[in-house]
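Comment thread on ticket #2218

A.B. wrote:
> Attaching the input chain for the structure job we discussed in standup.
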Amino acid sequence: DNNASWTNGGYDWDLAPGQNNMNEEWFGICAKGPTNDRGLYELYPRASYYALKEAHKLNPYEEGMTSEFIENYFKNINLMEAVLKARGDKAALEAKGSKTLGISQLQAKFTSFNTGGALITTPDNPDPANPEALPNQLGFDHMQSFFIGVEANPAANLRAEVVMNVVGNVARNPIDEIFYESITRRVVVDDDTDEIVNQGDRVNLYQAEFEWNAKDFDIRAFYRTGHYHWQYEGDFFGLYPEANYGPNLDIYGGEILGAEIDGKGAIEGLKAAIGPQLWWGANPTMLFKYQKELGHFDIAAIYNRDFETGLQFDDSGRRVLDPNQTRSGIIPPWPTERATLAVNREFGKFDVTVGGIWGGNPLNGSSFQDIDDNGNVVEDKVQASDNWGGKAKITYEGGRFNVYAQGAIRGIVANGGFDATQTFTGWKLKDSGAGNVSNFLAGFTYSFDNFQIAPNFMWQKPLVAAMPNGVDAPGRLRNFIDDPFAVRDGNREMTAGEILFTFDPTPGTWFYQWDNDRSEDAEFAMNLGFVWKHLPTTMDAHIGFDANRQFFAFPNSAPARPIVGLSGGLWELHSRMVSKLGPDLGLIGNFFWGNGQANGDSQRLIHRYGGDIRAIYKKMKLETHVLVNDWGPFDYHRDFNLTFPLQLMLDISTSFGKPDWFILPNTTIGLRGTWRSLDQFSNRFAPTQIPPNTFPPIPNVVPIGFDNGQEWEIRTYIHINIGK
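C.D. wrote:
> Ran it. Output below, let me know if you need it in another format.
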C-alpha cells in the first residue's frame, strides 16, 4: 500500500464525504527512508519540519510581543518553501532507490545436493529404464534458479511489478523431491486433444501484480502474490478465502490469478473480485460484496457465481476436470452460484451476528447414493431445499472474561469457507464452512496477571451421513469428483474439546497475531494446548494422486475413532514458545505430541511427537526439527499414511543483512543436513535390496530382522538478493 489513508472527522477543514483526509505519515515531521542491511533506515524532514522550524524561531514571551505581531509572523511563514525543501530531501534519498521503471529485485540461488542412504530404492546411478524416478540417484547434483523483477511507477497512485524465474540445471536427486523449480518438468495437457503441449519451460512467470488507486476506486490485480479474506468485512460464511499459502504455493506449483476492486466515494462499501483462479484450485468466478451501516446495524450481502455452471461427464459418468487445474494436487470444486446476507449489531459488550446462505443451485437435480433405514443403497437427488443454510454467533467481551457461542446448519450443497477469523485467542477447533452439516461451538477465556485459560467446545454432524466402508455394490463411498457432496473432515460427525493456556507478559505484541514471530518482544512467552476429538463414524472417500499425478478415489476411508472411557479418539498436545532476549537474539519453538490417522484408507493409527526450533543471533540463523514416527513433508505422505521412524534436520546460515523470521529474500549462505530412518511404513524402503559385493546376488525375500533403512542429504546454498 503506497497510500495508507483513512477518513477522520476531527479535521473538518479538509473533510469531504466519502474521501480520505488522513494518512498514516501525515502527522510526522520526518519520514523513513529505505531500510539498510542492519534493519535501520535514514530519516528525512517533511514539509511540516521546515514550517515548524520557522514557527519555533519566534519567542512569544519576548518583551513587547503582541498578538497582532504573532498572527502576522505565522501568516508570513512560506509553506511552499517548506514543501520544496522537503521535496528536495526526498528526491535526494529516493535517487538511491525507486524510479519510474527499474529492477525491483534480483535473486540468484545456487544449491548443491549430496545424498546417500542404505536399504532404499534410490539407485546409485540413474536407471535408464525408469527415467522419471525421483530421486533418480544417490550422489551429487546441483541447481541454479534466478528471479528477476521489474517494477514500474508511472504515477504516485499506480504501481506494477513482474517477476520472472529462470532455471539452470534442476537437481533430480533431492530426497524432498517436490519443489518449485520442478515446474520445468511439469506436463501441460491440451483440454481438447489430451495431448501433451508443454514439457516444462526454463523461463516462467513467477509473480505479477499491479495496483491503481483512483479517486472512485482501487484496483489490485495479482498472479501468485495472494490476497486477504473478507471475513472481517461482512463475509460471515467465508465465500472469499485468503490466498496466502506460504511456501506450499511454490512447492506444488500452484496458481492464483485475479483482480480485486474496492469502491470509494459514492460506491463506498462495494467490493468485487473477478478472476480465473482467485484462490488455489478455484473455478473461474466472480464475487460482489456490498456492506453498509443502517442505524445500529452493519449489513453485508455477497453474490458469487462461477462463469461456467454447466457440468460435463465422461462415458463412465465421472465429472470431467481440467487436467491443468489438477496438476498441483487440487481438485476443482463443483460449479456453484451462492449468495449470503449477514447482519451484525453491538449491544454494549455483546456482539451479535446472524446470516443466511443460498448456494449450490447448479447442482440441483444431481444424483447421489445414500443408505435407507433398511440398509439398502438408494439413489437420491439434490433438491432446491438443499441450497439453504443459516448461522448465528454471539460474543461477550468483558475484559478479563470473554465468551462466545455460535451455531450453523447448511444444506448438503450450501458450501461456505473455513472460518479464518480469530475469536479472543488461538483455538484450533473452528467451523469448516462445509455444507451438509449442523454444528455448535462455544468457549470462553479468562485472563489474570499474564496468564489466560481458554476452554473450547465443538459439536458437528452431517445432515446426510457418509456411505459405510465395505458397502455392497452398486454402492460405493462418495467423493468430491463423482458426487455433488461428500462427508470428510469438515463435516464428519465429531464431538471435540480443547483447552488452551497462554502466558503472554507483553500483550501489546499479542501472542496470536499473524506476525507474532517477528513482533513478539517478551523475554519468554508460550502457550500449551490440548485437543481431543470423538469421531464415532467413518467418512466418504478421499481423493489421492498416484505417481503419474493421476487422481483416484480411495475405495474406503479411515476408520472411526470414538472415545471410550478415557481413551480412544484423536488427540494432540501442542505448544509454542517464543523468547526474544534482545534485539540480536531470539528463539521460537513449536512442539507436539499425539496420534493421527491418514487421509486415505489406511487403518493404522500412528503415535507421533516432535518439534522445530528457530533461532536468530545477530546475522546467524539456525533451524532444526526432530520428528518421531511422523508423516513425511508432502501431502501424499499423509494420504497414504507413509511415516518415518525418525526425521532430523539442521540448517545453519549467515546473512548479509539481519535474518528475518519469515521466508523472505535475503543474501544468505548456508548448510543444511537432513536424515531419515525408514521402515515398512516409509516410501523408498527396500529391506531386500542386495548389498554391494554380495554373492550370489539373490535378495532375501523375508525382511524380518533387517535394520531400518536410511536416507540423508547435505545441501549447501548461496542466495544473493538485490532489492526488496
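A.B. wrote:
> Thanks. Noting for the ticket: Residues 79-94 form the longest helix (16 residues).
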